[in-house]
Amino acid sequence: xxxxxxxxxxxxxxxxxxxxxxxxxxxxxxxxxxxxxxxxxxxxxxxxxxxxxxxxxxxxxxxxxxxxxxxxxxxxxxxxxxxxxxxxxxxxxxxxxxxxxxxxxxxxxxxxxxxxxxxxxxxxxxxxxxxxxxxxxxxxxxxxxxxxxxxxxxxxxxxxxxxxxxxxxxxxxxxxxxxxxxxxxxxxxxxxxxxxxxxxxxxxxxxxxxxxxxxxxxxxxxxxxxxxxxxxxxxxxxxxxxxxxxxxxxxxxxxxxxxxxxxxxxxxxxxxxxxxxxxxxxxxxxxxxxxxxxxxxxxxxxxxxxxxxxxxxxxxxxxxxxxxxxxxxxxxxxxxxxxxxxxxxxxxxx
Length: 350
Ligand code: AMP
Ligand code: MG
Hints:
The chain has about 350 residues and is of the alpha/beta class.
């Protein structure tokens, strides 16, 4: 199958809508990452999403709609959900609500709840409005790869597996949506994203953050969100996070880089703008500014993909405090690093 990459003109949006209505797949931009969409009410169309991505069938999808009124058709919208919709939607917030019979169980991997979201990206909104359908869409990457934040990433992963990708440029948030479980007694964040715990607490009396967000699942522990069970976002090289005072972090990384260089191994450091001068002699990628953690979130996945394209065997990354958008950044970075973290202050004290 030929995969077309189109700028989101009115004609391209109409073509996307026609394809979706005909049960086909469309890659489209959202404010979080690119999605791989299909008609959520068409079981065969939804199955083809899993096939194109190589996604395990027990990892449920998020259903996207343009208008909150469409949600009543697919799930039980609670008062808390209505409050959150009026405050944060359209935006990077996915809510888990009890599903209705209209949603085929292949969408929710057999679960009684369905994940729903109202994206804010104008191209996603135009496409959803044009097709007038709820669209099931996971991230448009091959399963296991970092989520795509440009149309080119989607093409790199899925060329030949879908007829159309709409090119809406770089995604603004750059990390997948916050997944908030509204079926539990206290709203619980299962996956952190652009809508932070701090933001949710401005309108909700209480919010829980699943404690497995910054640590690996223990043996036999059940993942609250099936997606958290899978290895995610991992680059093919070895990535280590390094925490501590910036000077200590840089010294530890420089020492490791020298050892690697002696073995002829290439090293790349993901560092914050403010610390770049500390890394003379090593290849660095500026991941953003400490003052603006959202910039680091936006660039993380593209940086990991680039490292793979460049076949970098050894990667080191500086870290952020796990608050605000930093929580979502660290959740993805921890997974990319397989939870390997070096303590530069402890090393310096030896
Ligand atoms: P993706 O669309 O690739 O960002 O993945 C969607 C995320 O939402 C995955 O981590 C899923 O496991 C999670 N998810 C979707 N539906 C449900 C559900 N009904 N219950 C729990 N987690 C869900
Ligand atoms: Mg995904």
